[in-house]
Amino acid sequence: MTTSDRRTTEWTVRGTDREEYGEAARVIGEALLAGDDPDTVLERMRPIHDFEGYERVRVAVDDTGGAERIIGATNHFPFEMHLPGGLRPVAGVTGVGVWPTYRRRGVLSSLMRRQLADIHGAGGRYAALWASEGAIYGRFGYGPAVAETAAWVERTHAALRPDAPRDPDLTVHLAHSSEVRADLEAVHGEVVRTRLGQVPRTAPWWDRALRDKPEERGGKGRLLAVVVRGPRGPVGYALYRTAGKWESGGPQGTLHVQEVRATVPAAWTLLYEHLLDRDLIARIEFEFMAVDDPLVHLLANPDRLVREIFTSLWVRLVDVPGALAERTYTAPVEAVLAVTDRYAPWNAGTWSLKAGLEGARVEATDAAPDVSLDVSHLGAAYLGRTTLTGYGAAGLATEHTPGALARLDAALYRPDAAFNGVIF
Ligand SMILES: CC(=O)SCCNC(=O)CCNC(=O)[C@H](O)C(C)(C)COP(=O)(O)OP(=O)(O)OC[C@H]1O[C@@H](n2cnc3c(N)ncnc32)[C@H](O)[C@@H]1OP(=O)(O)O
């Protein structure tokens, strides 16, 4: 069958198992331009998938002409994520791909419809994903909920403010990442409890974060960990690699930061002093940084931190009334929402939201709506930083009661920006 054989009806979507997953991985690897041979792609995916299981993988098959062939796949990990209100079960959607000759014929649409029904059927209220392209997931009800940045700074302009907080009881230690794993896990566990968007990390996810095969280093050095310790244990760490470069004008090395986490302000100071002032380094690059990372304030000249903003998490409310009812709100609000949802029809309808500082109630209603909007807008706004007012100004959400969108935004707002920092 070729791309000219256009079939856009529903495709057969079914579960799979560990053995057959190799075929699905071949499709996903090719779709995502993994480049490696299928066995290498599979070897990289196996540890996480063996841990998380294969029961949530869904494959689309072409069953025309007798034999079945896997032509698309999706999966989701049963994560917990820190959302407004606390740690919640979130379906971490991943491994989405369609075999190149079957694109644009509705394969992904069939997979998404089935996956949402499965998540909902299992009692799930949320799904979240990192999108390969921003144009794909809005139609399936996902909204751009979290903005993060990649960042870099030249070492010559990376001095910290003289009044950056300091604590003489804190000390700095440098080691290979594998030697201090317990420290990293302790700090990360603490950060997950306070930072929106974070996901607790199980053993295979730590293995992945600390994976340091020489052939996969891409010309950089070993994965190092700098740990800050206080009297009661570790309070911060950073994972990074260096890449030396020698030019006629002098050393021009780069320091690549994979992640930085800290639980007290003075630990950020020590970590950044270490990262921003290694000898022979000219430039420091951060792969993922929260939009409100302390470095933005700690640099003596914050303008020298060059940041590129991108969407990390796309969030989908799989159960609109359930998700809105268990969220915490920054201000009381009452509103009637008319919600459209093409892919999860159980959400479509008119909902009355009555939210206070102590809790929220959401019920189906016949009342006239204050706003009409799509489920993707609610997903975008759920973590408190993407405004519904913005969708209104763009003409995508409609305000029937003047001021209703702004009142909803004030109630949904979170002063602390969510940060995920790990592509899944
Ligand atoms: C969470 C993750 O895993 S992200 C990784 C996603 N995977 C990739 O990017 C791998 C490369 N791409 C692919 O494998 C496929 O092109 C997919 C999965 C993105 C899309 O699969 P398809 O089967 O082609 O999608 P399908 O035919 O169901 O398209 C549904 C709609 O989305 C649109 N669409 C699909 N992909 C894209 C895209 N990349 N950009 C813009 N629009 C898109 C289609 O035009 C169609 O629009 P319509 O409903 O208005 O006609």
Automatic annotation (TrEMBL):
<feature type="domain" description="Enhanced intracellular survival protein">
    <location>
        <begin position="320"/>
        <end position="412"/>
    </location>
</feature>
<dbReference type="InterPro" id="IPR036527">
    <property type="entry name" value="SCP2_sterol-bd_dom_sf"/>
</dbReference>
<dbReference type="GO" id="GO:0016746">
    <property type="term" value="F:acyltransferase activity"/>
</dbReference>
<dbReference type="Pfam" id="PF13527">
    <property type="entry name" value="Acetyltransf_9"/>
</dbReference>
<feature type="active site" description="Proton donor">
    <location>
        <position position="137"/>
    </location>
</feature>
<dbReference type="InterPro" id="IPR051554">
    <property type="entry name" value="Acetyltransferase_Eis"/>
</dbReference>
<dbReference type="InterPro" id="IPR016181">
    <property type="entry name" value="Acyl_CoA_acyltransferase"/>
</dbReference>
<dbReference type="Pfam" id="PF13530">
    <property type="entry name" value="SCP2_2"/>
</dbReference>
<keyword id="KW-0808">Transferase</keyword>
<feature type="binding site">
    <location>
        <begin position="104"/>
        <end position="109"/>
    </location>
    <ligand>
        <name>acetyl-CoA</name>
    </ligand>
</feature>
<comment type="similarity">
    <text>Belongs to the acetyltransferase Eis family.</text>
</comment>
<feature type="domain" description="Eis-like acetyltransferase">
    <location>
        <begin position="197"/>
        <end position="306"/>
    </location>
</feature>
<feature type="active site" description="Proton acceptor; via carboxylate">
    <location>
        <position position="424"/>
    </location>
</feature>
<dbReference type="Pfam" id="PF17668">
    <property type="entry name" value="Acetyltransf_17"/>
</dbReference>
<feature type="binding site">
    <location>
        <begin position="96"/>
        <end position="98"/>
    </location>
    <ligand>
        <name>acetyl-CoA</name>
    </ligand>
</feature>
<dbReference type="InterPro" id="IPR041380">
    <property type="entry name" value="Acetyltransf_17"/>
</dbReference>
<protein>
    <submittedName>
        <fullName>GNAT family N-acetyltransferase</fullName>
        <ecNumber>2.3.1.-</ecNumber>
    </submittedName>
</protein>
<dbReference type="InterPro" id="IPR025559">
    <property type="entry name" value="Eis_dom"/>
</dbReference>
<comment type="subunit">
    <text>Homohexamer; trimer of dimers.</text>
</comment>
<feature type="binding site">
    <location>
        <begin position="132"/>
        <end position="133"/>
    </location>
    <ligand>
        <name>acetyl-CoA</name>
    </ligand>
</feature>
<dbReference type="InterPro" id="IPR022902">
    <property type="entry name" value="NAcTrfase_Eis"/>
</dbReference>
<keyword id="KW-0012">Acyltransferase</keyword>
